[in-house]
Every structure is written in structure tokens, then in C-alpha cells.
Amino acid sequence: xxxxxxxxxxxxxxxxxxxxxxxxxxxxxxxxxxxxxxxxxxxxxxxxxxxxxxxxxxxxxxxxxxxxxxxxxxxxxxxxxxxxxxxxxxxxxxxxxxxxxxxxxxxxxxxxxxxxxxxxxxxxxxxxxxxxxxxxxxxxxxxxxxxxxxxxxxxxxxxxxxxxxxxxxxxxxxxxxxxxxxxxxxxxxxxxxxxxxxxxxxxxxxxxxxxxxxxxxxxxxxxxxxxxxxxxxxxxxxxxxxxxxxxxxxxxxxxxxxxxxxxxxxxxxxxxxxxxxxxxxxxxxxxxxxxxxxxxxxxxxxxxxxxxxxxxxxxxxxxxxxxxxxxxxxxxxxxxxxxxxxxxxxxxxxxxxxxxxxxxxxxxxxxxxxxxxxxxxxxxxxxxxxxxxxxxxxxxxxxxxxxxxxxxxxxxxxxxxxxxxxxxxxxxxxxxxxxxxxxxxxxxxxxxxxxxxxxxx
Length: 457
Ligand code: SAH
Prior knowledge:
Blueprint: E1 13-21, E2 27-31, E3 34-38, E4 46-54, E5 59-68, H1 81-84, H2 94-111, E6 135-143, E7 146-152, E8 159-161, H3 170-185, E9 200-207, E10 214-220, H4 228-238, E11 242-249, E12 261-267, E13 271-275, E14 278-282, H5 292-306, E15 313-317, H6 323-329, E16 334-339, H7 342-354, E17 360-364, H8 367-376, E18 383-386, H9 395-404, E19 408-413, H10 416-428, E20 431-439, E21 449-456
Helix pairs in contact: 2-10, 5-6, 8-9
Bound molecules: S-adenosyl-L-homocysteine.
The site of S-adenosyl-L-homocysteine (SAH) has 19 residues, from helix 6, strand 16 and helix 8.
């Protein structure tokens, strides 16, 4: 076997042009075809870069000089953008972000799926692409003898204090800041990671956008929280919309935020939110989409693409807490949801009951195992909807879908490279790709969501 020659060397400088962006917002340049990833570099920019790390099949570089800058480059609004790493494309105008997301989908379909002329619509963006997250998750710690609450500095475990985060709600910024002050005042020690000492590890604030109800979860190392009654009193009197305060205990030395034990310290075990006129109950541990405005948009598109008249049997694979399932159930005869996490299915069933749906059924298990079993039992789907994690659908599920031959397949995707791979299988199996609609669920970040409609050819 001939050994491939790597055409770049560490610490050497190269003039390159950025061709595309990776899923985490890095610019991609090629030196003799060899990909180099460069932070803070946009498509079309011509730069001089220094190679910082070389791997077998790719390298990383740092932009040193810009010869041609992109017309889409803007000054990031957030003061801590560079240190934080939570957002990746704030240096790109919002219009530019939407275009980049569209182009990425087109490129993946071409390069990975060999789909040349797909009808990929312009990305649906947000009217106001800031303050869109309904959930804030903030680590607490000490720095210079003071309580700090913010985010881990990129690639480190040092916590940087944060007064404001552009993509989180104002109210959650305020609650986090109040918590920081109360910790100081009421002598609630923040967690010390290196010694595994202290009390408060994380604060999680969740807000129902429609209902304005707020849930605060305190993740602690210990069961006891000093002055907890005073803490609760102060929080609730300052923020009357707090309907629930929970404690989760995590005594372990770990990067995982939650421990196994959760209890309610104040108020209700749930807060509620609403999407598409459907109420969802949210508990401290339950999954709920973080951008409810765009979730409504994306999932409504999925329902539109399902083209339901009220008589259809629909399968919703990877159904999570049943958000899409319930959206579909408003228009279908019967919807079957399947999801691997038992707690999510419990939430899905509760949400179906809460809203009086009688045409939904849920199963715990792998989509690739449950769906063949349904079909085996004589259930014939008219439409199949899938919303898999980043790795896409299991190949055997795609084959099962082709055998079941529903009239329509709606594919909701959070990774257009695996979407492209799976679409190729479905197209080869006899489906026609009608349309792909990217929806911007995570402005300022490089994440891309889209929904594709396939019809039996
Ligand atoms: N539409 C859902 C979210 C889908 S995210 C909602 O709105 O709630 C993808 C989901 O697929 C996750 O909940 C994950 O737990 C689940 N999952 C992952 N692999 C799976 C598999 N093989 N079979 C079924 N579900 C799976």
C-alpha cells in the first residue's frame, strides 16, 4: 500500500481560500486537496493561515492575515463570543447564516447523496434571531474568592462569569445573576470541581414561552442546601412567575450535569408550555425542544408534507416526547410513535392524555425493531415520519420503510450529511424527493435542521 503524503506541515504558513464551513462553523480550506479547518474564516475569504495541528486526513489552522474578507462578515454582538464557544457563526450576518445553512444542505445532497438538482428551499429564519432559547444551563464555581456563574471557557474547565447571553432569555439571565448573588449572601458554596467539594454545581432555568411559567432546577453535590428556605423565598418573591423549584443531587465526579435523584423544593412538579395549541408538561429532566418558535415552524412543515386528510395511519419514528406525534394526531386517523428512551415515552403518553388525544399509541424501543413488528401485526402506514439523531436512520429501518411502501415519507433531520446518505437509499428504493426545507432552529450556531418530503414514485 502506498502511504498518502500529507501536503501540509505544522507551523508552516499557507495562502488559502475558504470553500465551505463545517458543522461547527470552521472554515474549510484545501491545500492540494487536503482539508484544513480554520476558525473565524468565512466562505470566499482568502487568508494566510498557520497550520497548528496535523492529523492523518485533515489539519487545523489559525487565520493570520486576511487578503479578501467576506461581505457577510459582521462584528459579533456578544462580548464573550470568542471565549465561550456556545455560538459559532456570530461573525456571519444573519442573512449569511441562513444562506450558509441552505448551501450546506445543497452541498451534502450533492456530495454525499449524489442528488444533483434537489429542490432545496431558502432557510426559514427567525424574525429576531436572539434570545430564542427556553432553557439555560449554567455551571457555578469560584474565581478569585467570588461566586461565578457562566460558561466553561473553550476547551477548559475554568468558569467565566456571564452577565448576559444573547441567545438566552432576559429573565433567565436575571435569575442566574440573582442566584449568584444569593449564593454569596446565603453562603451556599459553589462546587469545586478539582476537590469535589461545595454545594451548587449547576442552575437550570426553563421558561414556557407561551405560558411564561418558569422552572428553576438546582443541581447540587449534597442533599443539604444551606439556608434553602430563605433562598426559595427570595427567588420566588423576586420572580413570581417561578412555578417550580427542583433540586437534583449529583455527588459524582463527572461532566454529566444531572444525578439520579430529583425532588421538588417548591411549587409544582411541572411547568407547561404550548405549541400549535397543544400543551406540553415539562419536568426537570424531560426533553423539550429549546427553540419553541422554530420548532412550531419545523414540525408544522413536517405535518404539511405529510398531507393528511384525517384518514391516515402514520408512524412517527424517533418520536421523543411525542411533539411531532401530537402535531400529526391533530390531522390523522391514528399515529404510532416509537422512541428508545422510556421516560420520553412516559412524557409523550402524558402529553397525549393532557390534551385528550385518543388516536395515538406509543412504544418504547428501537425504531428499526418496533416498526417491523407493527407491520408484522398488520398495521399498514400511509405516511412514515422520521426524526432521527445525528447518525441518521438505521439501514434496516430504511429497508423496512421501502418494503412498507407508504405514500409519503417525511424526514426531519438535524444533520444533512446523514440525511443525504439516507435519501439516496430511499430514492434508489423508488421514492421521489419533492422538496427539502431547512429551518433555522439554532441561530448564531452552525447547527442545521431541515425537513424533506418524499413521495412514492
Ligand atoms: N421529535 C422528537 C425529538 C427527536 S430527537 C421530539 O420532538 O421530542 C431523536 C430521538 O431519537 C431522541 O429522543 C432519541 O432518544 C431517539 N432515538 C435514538 N435512537 C433511536 C432508535 N434507534 N430508535 C428509536 N429512537 C431512537
